[in-house]
Specification:
Elements lengths: L1 H12 L3 H14 L2 H8 L2 H21 L5 E6 L2 E7 L4 E9 L3 H9 L11 E11 L2 E8 L8 E12 L4 E8 L5 E2 L2 E2 L6 E2 L1 E13 L2 E11 L7 H24 L5 H8 L1 H10 L7
Parallel strand pairs: 6-10
Antiparallel strand pairs: 1-2, 2-3, 3-12, 4-5, 5-6, 6-7, 7-11, 8-9, 11-12
């Protein structure tokens, strides 16, 4: 059993989550009830199952466009929403006439996020427990009355080679004090909960890419004001995707390009995993 557990952990560290889940399922079938309880306490086992369950949910959302209400459209960007009194679910779609590498760099270089994401005061990478996973602490600059908010998330890229895409799964881990060996700081104010979110980046050609965004968050307010819903759906997501496009257009000579050149092995592994043959 120990050898198989170590194999699962290594697959997890290398972000072969589908293979890790298969090995985990096979191992569980061989164990006694007591051994299964012991295995269930392994943090990697919980995260593997949670991530793949979340990936399936998000892929279902991405394949469904019928139940979303269009909110705004600008050139090659469309935003959508679903909202209730207690939650906001938003979606954005953008066709980008740029290579995929700038997009991958934008979402991989955490220390540069605050330079271009409009609503961020700061973003700190608390740790990197696997190749494509980051534990990120966000600090937001939001309009009144949603002030003094932060969020801690696990963000992991799941390659989907059959679609030449990577699904970046983002979910809150604020219910933990420690996650995969990384200490999670206590909130100083009110912590936003990201129930789930994703960024799906797809290679369409040498100079054609697509990005899809879905997010459901809870700002922990008794009643979400209409001004906030409008801000997020009509402005926040649209501005975010506009910023993505602007940063991609300014990629040559940028800090993002410098980061890619400084770490070619990481980006070469990403494009290999999503089954595209391009030079980094």
């Amino acid at each position: 059993m120990e050898a198989k557990v170590e194999e699962i952990k290594q697959l997890f560290r290398d972000d072969y989550l589908i293979q890790a889940h298969k090995k985990l399922t096979e191992l569980e079938a061989e164990l006694t009830d007591e051994e299964k309880l012991s295995l269930a306490e392994m943090s990697e086992a919980r995260v593997i199952k949670d991530d793949l369950q979340m990936a399936n949910l998000l892929l279902e959302h991405l394949s469904d466009l019928e139940s979303w209400e269009p909110v705004a459209q600008e050139e090659d960007i469309v935003t959508f929403s679903k909202s209730t009194q207690s939650e906001v679910i938003v979606r954005g779609e953008m066709l980008l006439h740029q290579p995929i590498t700038p997009l991958l760099a934008l979402f991989s270089e955490c220390d540069l996020l605050k330079n271009w994401v409009p609503i961020l005061k700061d973003a700190k990478c608390l740790g990197q427990p696997s190749i494509f996973r980051r534990i990120i602490h966000y600090f937001f600059d939001l309009p009144w009355p949603v002030t003094n908010r932060d969020m801690v998330v696990s963000a992991v890229g799941v390659p989907i080679p059959e679609n030449n895409s990577t699904l970046m799964i983002i979910r809150s881990i604020d219910q933990y004090t420690n996650f995969l060996g990384i200490n999670i700081p206590a909130p100083e104010g009110i912590r936003i909960t990201m129930d789930y979110a994703c960024l799906n980046v797809t290679y369409l050609g040498p100079n054609e890419s697509q990005i899809s965004l879905i997010a459901r968050c809870n700002p922990h307010m008794a009643l979400i004001p209409t001004v906030l819903v409008n801000y997020v759906t009509k402005h926040g997501i649209l501005y975010f995707l506009q910023s993505v496009r602007e940063q991609c257009e300014k990629y040559e000579g940028s800090l993002h390009q410098q980061s890619v050149k400084a770490n070619p092995a990481y980006y070469e592994e990403v494009v290999k995993r999503i089954n595209i043959d391009i030079l980094i």
